[in-house]
Please model this.
Amino acid sequence: MLRPARKGERERPGAAALDFIEAECADPASPLFGVPEAALMAEFPAPDQSRRVLEAVGSGDRTHANIAATAGSQCGALPSGILSPLLRRLTEEKRVLASDIPLSTSPGKPALYRVADSNLRLYLAAMRSAQELSRRGRPEAAYRLVQRRWTAWRGRAVEPLIREALELAAASGDFPWPDTAVVGGWWNRRFSPEIDLIGADRSPVASALCFAGSVKWLASPFDQHDLTALRTGASQVPGFTPGTTGLAVVSLSGTTASVADDGVGLVWGAQGVVSAWGS
Model:
């Protein structure tokens, strides 16, 4: 049973996320652990195939083949005839998973799956393992585990939010590419390159691309090397025309001085993302 929080114990307005998590790791009964755990148990009370598929995606497996391998058994990978209906059920009926497909002027594969709820995604990626350490009286080890996984989790978790924010900004009219109706990403079967942001006039197959962009959610600024990588990768996206299709950069730590003056049509930081949701 979760004990009620004492006055001032949980309420820490403005606390950095990792500082908050460090404090919560001292209590294995913290709502930070208990709420997603309860949601998971309510939807998937038994460790059946659906649960194994969800946990595989939560641990970082995004493709059909990788999910099949992780969610399988000693007899081998989960057969496609079993996995495909499970994935459809988890995305379309349960809506606990989301499916992303490459966005361009040509049909693309493969689809990539992710846990739709960011709280449950963090729990499966790190907090569940941290809770086990906390239960064993090792809160410092629990926090270090979260620290190690935090940057990778955060970088993936923020991408869908940024795409939605860009769609909202485009709909408001104050946007460099007003024909943008949908924002997704693009990748090929080798996942080399992966383009974080593709703005287009429609999906799943666009008739025209408005922009390609990159998300860098790290402590270092987006620099000229990152911009060169974006231009090189975007040139492989069907429908992208160098010099005509726009470029966008969303960076937690801003950009170096030369980037904004080098043909980039949109530069956002964290405030730009937040402002789009409030507009």
Notes: Residues 17-102+115-153 form one domain. The first strand starts at residue 97 and ends at 100. The beta strands are 97-100, 112-115, 182-187, 194-200, 209-216, 246-251, 266-268.
